[in-house]
Amino acid sequence: MNDKKLVNMNRGSVFLSLIFFVLFLVVLFRFLYIMITGTVDGVNLVENKETRITKEGILEGKKGEILTSDGEKIAVDSQVYTVIGVLSKENPNHIKDIPDTAAKLARVLKTDSKAIEKSLSDSKAYQVELGKIGRNITFTQMQEISDLDLPGIIFAPDIRRTYPLGDFASHIVGITDFDGIGISGIEKEYSEELLGTDGYIKKKIDGFIGLGYDLPQEDSKSKPPQNGNNIYTTLDMNIQTILEDSMNQVVKEYNPEKIIGIVMDPKTGEIVALSNRPSIYPNEQNEVNYLNYALSSSFEPGSTMKIFTLAAAINEGVYHGQEKYKSGAIEVTGELIHDHNKTGWGIITYDKGVELSSNVAFTILAKDKLGFDRFYRYLQEFGFDKKTGIDMGNEGLGKFVYNRPIEKATTAFGQGSTFTPIQLVTAASSIANDGKMMKPYVIKKITDESGGILEENKPKVLNNPVSAETAKKTRELLTSVVTDGTGTHFQLNDFQVAGKTGTAQISDGEGGYQVGRNNYMFSFLGMAPAEDPRLIMYVAVEKPNLKADQVGANAVSEIFNTVMDYSLKKLNATSDVDNNNSNSEEVTPTIMESYKEKSVKNSVSILKDKGLEPIILGRGKKVIETEPIKGTELLKGSKVLIKTEGKKVMPDITGWSLSDVMKLSSLTGLEIQHEGNGFVTSQSIGEGKEIKEGNKLSIKLK
């Protein structure tokens, strides 16, 4: 090797050594920098490592439940599913035949296959949802679709607010939107109380090749979710169900524009049932009118207002029932007020005028006997100038039209001034409750998830507008209205009813009133038993389609009589009708005991000995839960549902009432869909079939 070549090699070695030395220094300084600062390109390595090996999950807190007074679930959080269609051909399990898939899905989802086919025809999407059609489907529907083995159809689980009893008390309970936010009723007004708080769980995992094993000796951190509070309403399951059924029957028979029904316990102010038509169907998420007419809508009450004019006159000592007056018409500052038959009944007593609902009689009582100023003070005492303060939002307030003498006179018999149904019922509680006017309420108590009581409503007296003697005398006269006057449609076989009918004109929006025999708000405000009322009930039916031989009271009484008679018997109210003329007999109820953890065989034997009908929902040997619950009063022949350990099994419910079916729903979680009224004639889940969570039971009643 020559000297020149050797020199070149030495120079190259030195040059390479310098390069490697410089690189070594760069790496060394970089390493020292990272050691000292703990960062790379502004990224904290410790924090980044923690982030990479820490797995965090959200533990969702459920919303609280809404229940009836005796614990029947009305609103709950339930598992639902969203249908997803995989379209990309890169996925071997994609939809192969879109028209066939759409047709089969449409049969289960009960919709038009064209709408589904349109959703599935997006050629650019990897996968698609079906929109509103495929959201929030039940476990049963998901299972039906799964059984079809449709390629490319998958499901995403979710939690949604559901209503196991359908439109049961829907205007009181309210509804939520798709995000679970309350938009009406209790769901809106008590959203903070119902809302749960999410928890979390954090744990360290081994990031090695993505296996994600939990790291040993690393403590996980977690915060458990807190479920929302439960709200117990004052609603009675059975009375509310009968009210709903009766309203449905009247809708079917008379097709009215509106129905309002309120049932109150006058001793406490508890609203035991309330409903409106049109209804809200919360499980269907349709566009509906959320306005609770019973609380928010004001209108001229018609002759039901005469109850309070009468009570005021009695309380002031200016009512003399045997005194006579001339019926037919009376002049008030140049304007005539007529009785409803125009010509009147000649010279009659005031007692007879009350029975016949004479406008002239009540004009005289307000104008001449009381005086308009004193009458107005009584209207204030009855609370007609203010809201009742019921524990719900959107309570309305009527309007006094009380300036000219003619307006003051017409207010006395229910025209001109407007009031809400809840104002009328609240005022009437003073007549039913010996002068004490009770504050209405629908929230019985609020509990935490373990059952601890956080808030509890108690009866509250709003005012004492009249004396106990006045209230009793008023009830006696209102009883004669039902037995011998305009309210004969509202007589019951086993109980005396005290009440007043109303036939209110409906505004035409131009300062006048609509005309035609159907264009009225027909109503009845009644209480029973008349001697010591257990319940007050108000029913109003707007613009029913009446046949030639029908009057408005036909439609109203179909609801009032059915609900009041059933409810009083359920409450074991004492009949105040002469037993010699009645087929009723004294019935001693059985008080339901607790059978929890007891033998099914022994429990069935005991229940049968007490004259009750036990229904077993399972094949276990130990009682887990019963419906009704401990302390419930039962009549002989009442059904007692027994939930056992293990799988729940469907009984034969042919011949059951809707009320009994709702008990089954409460105990099993079945979602009920019903058609018709009366008793069950068919059921979609056969006897002996297993009841799975989320199952939907369709029944027909007749």
Automatic annotation (TrEMBL):
Cross-referenced Gene3D superfamilies: DD-peptidase/beta-lactamase superfamily, Penicillin-binding protein 2a (Domain 2)
InterPro entries for the chain: Beta-lactam/transpept, Beta-lactam/transpept-like, PASTA_dom, PBP_dimer, PBP_dimer_sf, PCN-bd_Tpept
UniProt keywords, alphabetically: Membrane, Transmembrane, Transmembrane helix
Name of the protein in question: serine-type D-Ala-D-Ala carboxypeptidase
Subcellular location: Membrane
Signal peptide: none
Superkingdom of origin organism: Bacteria
E.C. number: 3.4.16.4
Family to which the UniProt record says this protein belongs: Belongs to the transpeptidase family.
PROSITE patterns, A to Z: PASTA
Residue stretches spanning the membrane: 12-36
UniProt pathway: Cell wall biogenesis; peptidoglycan biosynthesis
Catalysed reactions listed for this entry: Preferential cleavage: (Ac)2-L-Lys-D-Ala-|-D-Ala. Also transpeptidation of peptidyl-alanyl moieties that are N-acyl substituents of D-alanine
Location of the PASTA domain: 644-702
Pfam family, one: Transpeptidase
